[in-house]
Amino acid sequence: MRIGIFSDTYFPQINGVGTSIRTLAQGLEAQGHRVYIFTPWDPNSSEDESEYIFRVPSMPFLFAKNFRTALLCPPHLLRKIKDLQLDIIHTQTEFSLGFLGKFVATTQGIPLVHTYHTMYEDYVHYIGGGYLFTQEMSRDYSKLFCNATTAIITPTQKTEDLLLSYGVDKPISIIPTGINTKRFQRENYAPEEILALRQSYGLEADTPVVLSLGRVAKEKSIDVVMESMPKLLEQLPTAKMVVVGDGPERENLEALANTLGIAEHVIFTGAKPWDEIGKYYQLGDVFCSASTSETQGLTFAEAMAAGVPVVAQKDPCIETIIQHEETGLLFEDEMELSSMLYSLLSDAKKQSDFSKRGMEAMKNLSAEAFCSNVAEVYTHVLENTEDVVHIVAPALPLVMGAKAAIRITKLPKKIVVRSYHRTKKMAEHFPYFRKKDASDS
After folding, report:
1. What global pTM score does this model have?
2. Which of the chain's ends, N or C, has fewer CB atoms near its CB within 10 Å?
3. How far apart are CA 364 and CA 386, in angstroms?
4. How many Cα neighbours within 13 Å face the side chain of 173?
């Protein structure tokens, strides 16, 4: 198959969506498929990146400086996309590049699969403090986007339930994003290399370290972990908290550390290259996160694959990854956090037991299974299409600005494409699809 992946975020930006796309692209290529990635131009992107990655002119996103939004799609790129003769378009985000993917799917009659990665109602604070774009608007927007696709992929049951509550009526497949567990394994790094990395941040071999790794943003609730540190330090005075990553909340967290009187116990490393992330997990004796905004929580899985015990806020998205007191610890009340951290950091055997069970559990979350399941979605969508002469979704302008992207315009009179919809055969025989009444788009 020839697959076009459209996403508003990709490397060199470090986040779960980019990681998922790279894992998927590499896995599909290994299976013999050809994958093309379309994403905004980034000033930090490598000059020698793959010829199958196409960059669309972009500008910084007004409300989040670390992200970019695509501008006008050049005509030569549209011609190039047409010449590629794509079999499937797979959108990974719902904004500028997501709409470009929709436009191409609509005008070229290509089935459109979409992965819903992000719970936007937890992110509306980035746009005018949640007043310009409300939670209700985010739900309506997600419903509009998803219902104009052929099929949906979600990483967890939590995300599927969310979309169903919005009124999404397209077939949904639950496929957890797989990870390449080998690249996180502790055996990849010599003890001397890990010690040298620790010492570069003023940490000794026996310094107890609480690790936070990922985008430093409000919805990640890093402040909750930081606020547990003063009580932990009463019991374990040498403990440190290491925050690997960068983002809009860093200054606020640095100020919070000063307010709590623990600034000398909190280390911010800044963002690190994706290829080195496996080594940075080895800084931690415990990985801790209080985020409940995840749709799957890849960092939890990566930490476990790296042999680092996990302490996390209880949330449906990680219930299939972490079993309390078995492969990690889950807290419901923030007052429990410091005692949980102490129980792990002060007990070497407990750390070792959680580490071994966590690594064993992550063997089932393989990248190979993830890519095979997504390829199966593609195959079933292609085998269950019908030639119909009406529009799947309204054609959209090529200008990827807010007004053009959000407002659906009148349909051109002469566009005739295919409409793809779920059939009884797909409902009965495709194991990942949830059964609902079949209906035309």
Report:
1. 0.69
2. N
3. 36
4. 26
Give the pLDDT of residue 125: 47
* List of domains in the chain: 2-178+367-429 (3.40.50.2000), 181-362 (3.40.50.2000)
Q: Tell me which H or E stretch contains 312.
A: strand 310-313
Predicted confidence (pLDDT) per residue in 319-337, tens digit = 778 999 999 999 999 999 9
Helices and strands per DSSP (H, E), number in the chain: 16, 15
Q: Considering Cα of 129, then 134, then 139, then 141, what sign does the dihedral take?
A: negative
Q: What is the CB neighbour count within 10 angstroms for residue 116?
A: 26
Taking residues 24-31, report their average pLDDT: 96
Whether 187 contacts 219, CB under 8 Å = no
Quote the strand ranges of 47-110, DSSP E. Answer: 53-56, 58-61, 64-70, 88-91
Contacts by residues 32-36 (CB-CB < 8 Å, ≥ 24 positions apart)? 33/1, 33/2, 33/3, 33/375, 34/1, 34/2, 34/3, 35/3, 35/5, 36/2, 36/3, 36/4, 36/5, 36/84, 36/86
Q: Virtual CA dihedral for 209, 212, 218, 220, nearest 10 degrees?
A: -130
Apex 298 CA angle, 307 and 170, nearest 5? 150
Bridge-partner residues for 88, per DSSP?
Answer: 3
- What is residue 199's predicted lDDT score, i.e. its pLDDT? 97
CB 135 within 8 A of CB 141: no
Question: Could you tell me the two tokens for 66?
Answer: 């670390």
